[in-house]
Structures are given as structure tokens and as C-alpha cells.
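Sequence, please.
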């Protein structure tokens, strides 16, 4: 199992925030859906923190686990093609197995 780190930017104006919620569309929900489609298996992502409705992010970090190696460049291209224009994946990188987007964060602004 490999762990991958995502670097994400978004304009949160149209969204209910980061975390999946029953009462609105969330950033996490859209990225998970795109990853699930691209990788053809259910994917859960874990963010470094939550944002409220309408809040933007310039460098939100998240991670996910996947059984096989990926080509980060191709996956970024695929995800950005599926995601709305106000959500962009800036980078995907291999991470240490011990890395956790929330618990490994050094600071948040």
C-alpha cells in the first residue's frame, strides 16, 4: 500500500466547506469522487483540516492510500479534467507511510 500526498487549491465560494456533509457539496466529496473514477476503486482522502462554507485554500494538503504505483503527472491531469475549474490539484507526491495530512501538519494559516 502506498500513501500519496495531494496539494490542493480551491475557491470555496460555491461549496459547503472541506468535509463531506449531507447538506451540501464539499471539496473532499468532489476530489474523492474524481479519484474513485480515475483509479477505479473507492478512495477516501484525509485533509489537513476543515474549512467552513465559502472559505478558499491556496495549499490544502490531503492524503490517500492506493495499492498500486501511480503516475502523478497523469493523475493530476485526469483529476483536473474531472473537477470543477474552481478546484485544482497542484501536486501529487509519494509520502511516507507514517505521514498523515492532519497529524503531520506543522502549521496552518
Amino acid at each position: 500500500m502506498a500513501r500519496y500526498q495531494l496539494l490542493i487549491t480551491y475557491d470555496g465560494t460555491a461549496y459547503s466547506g472541506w468535509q463531506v456533509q449531507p447538506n451540501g457539496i464539499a471539496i473532499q466529496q468532489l476530489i474523492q469522487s474524481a479519484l474513485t473514477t480515475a483509479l477505479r476503486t473507492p478512495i477516501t482522502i484525509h485533509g489537513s483540516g476543515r474549512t467552513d462554507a465559502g472559505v478558499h485554500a491556496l495549499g490544502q494538503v490531503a492524503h490517500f492510500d492506493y495499492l498500486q504505483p501511480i503516475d502523478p503527472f497523469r493523475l493530476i491531469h485526469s483529476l483536473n479534467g474531472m473537477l470543477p475549474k474552481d478546484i485544482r490539484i497542484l501536486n501529487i507526491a509519494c509520502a511516507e507511510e507514517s505521514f498523515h495530512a492532519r497529524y503531520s501538519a506543522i502549521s496552518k494559516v
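Helices lie at 27-39, 72-82.
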